[in-house]
Fold these 3 entries.
Entry 1:
Amino acid sequence: MHIPVLAREVLQGLDLKPGETVIDGTLGAGGHAALMLEATGPNGKLVGFDRDGRNIEISKKNLERFGERLSAINDSFAAMETYGLSADAILLDLGFSSMHVDEAQRGFSFMYEGPLDMRYDLRGDITAADIVNSWSRDDLATLFRRYGEDPNAQVIAKAITEARKEKRFVTTLDLADVVAAVVPRRGKLHPATFVFQALRIAVNDELGELEKGLQAAEKVLKAGGRIAIITFHSLEDRIVKQFFKESSVLETVTKKPIVPGQTEVLDNPRSRSAKLRIAKKK
């Protein structure tokens, strides 16, 4: 099962009570959901959203012991308001699933060869291959600079547009190799890290979904209820921080983001960039 990040801190921050209703906007394999269902037992409810239909099936199996207390919906958390929900607590863990990284066929990782896809929802129309094979050099550079905050955006965009004249980009390694050829490696970070991040964000409209999801969550959350959001890069964190600050109905609980301790980072290296912010509805 996917290791839930900042699990203890999430449970403490949400201050869950037996019988409460929780929304898990990013169900994944059900790691956080299991803990929240236990905390709201014996009769609390959890509604989980996930854009990946496969994750819905995996989480249902992992959480089958909770029976009808779980409702799993194959949709974006941005749509939660359309389901007539009212929640005592909401969790959004914005980190993409380890299952996505580890399965080459989903095309999220430059560590394995797979199709250049990156869609959470396989019903989506656009793939990462579509972007790198059709967007202009200027548009690619803007994408890598804006969503990847990559200082080498122009160099990479030029290399991609030159390389695709010879052949289309089909696999993750096709792209990773072109980037690595023009950007020197520094330290442990692969030269294509920020390019893959930018493409993933664009393919799934992650920042747009986050903004819509925050607005929906604010409406769905009951008075006195809490929302916890885990981000994994500065673009997400800035959006969450600003939303909490500007909201007229949410009061920030965490003056500074909560980050994993050294033990958690050693046990789960993928947690190292996580930041948790919590707010309470007035």
Entry 2:
Amino acid sequence: MKQTIITLFLVHISFMSYSQDQRMNFEKGTFKEALVKAKKEGKLLFMDCYTSWCRPCKEIDKYVFTQEFVYAFFNENYINVKVNVEKGEGIELAQNYNVTSYPTLLVLNQNGEIVTRFEGVRSAKALVKKAKEVLKRNN
């Protein structure tokens, strides 16, 4: 009995570690640091503008950004940033980029200029399709 419980616990821990490693890699630093990284790596910046109370924002987090083909694509091709537009530097970023509906997903060039914007909830397939089109136009 004791071995069974230990085995189940280890399987659970292994699964949790695996699932936590498989997600969108949103930069932890500042917006400016993310822009520097985008320049250094020659990538566009993908910015998720959200609020804590926004239900569609939470749905994108839960149902779109967790799909393997989504996070694999964005992690490889973009520098990803998640910005709460009601806190810290997010307030100014929302004003600068005229973010008035949530969620707003922006693609920015390495100078911080808007390449395209997505407003509202998108399906995972539609989001990746549009993001691929943006890459083709900007390469």
Entry 3:
Amino acid sequence: MGTVEAPTDALRLDVAPGVVLWHGRLDAGAQRALLDDVLARVELAPFYRPRMPLSGAPFSVEETNFGPLGWVSDKSGYRYQPTHPLSGKPWPAIPPLLLALWDELTQYPAPPQCCLVNLYRAGAKMGLHQDRDEGARDAPVLSVSLGDEALFRIGGTSRRDPTRGVALRSGDVLVFGGPARLAFHGIDRVKAGTSGQIPGGGRINLTLRRVTPPQ
């Protein structure tokens, strides 16, 4: 799959057992190239606003997906499916740069099947939740930040566990797995205007997951 050369000033931070953050893992050039690739694929699978199960309340974030499977939410519940819920078309492929990061930083023996793309505009956030809709829970989750800085919060496997906040900036890459695979996590807030990368402002988060166990 190739490699993504790490900038000389990229900093590894062990946030908690099973949680590793690479500050500045993507330099400015790599960020621009990835954003251009992401936006081109979004033309094929436009952002939409998911809805909460049961209540049907809209998310504050907009979403789309890349890869064989996409994570969706509506009144009937959470699930993975191979097609965009509005267009009915297959999701675009995952960008090669993200696949290379997955290979290098997770060491997992199978590729990701889903890249969930979250768009945070002004005021958008994500409450504490677990990524538990996947069968391959031995696979870590990899997250890439582009655009405005965000305050990420992560705790333990119980809602009652203490949490800690971590600043995520454009170009940062976060991986959590092992004892932290089912950790509660979310985005407290996005600091609007800290980056001018995203057209229209805001932050894009790209989350790679393996959904089914490798054969």
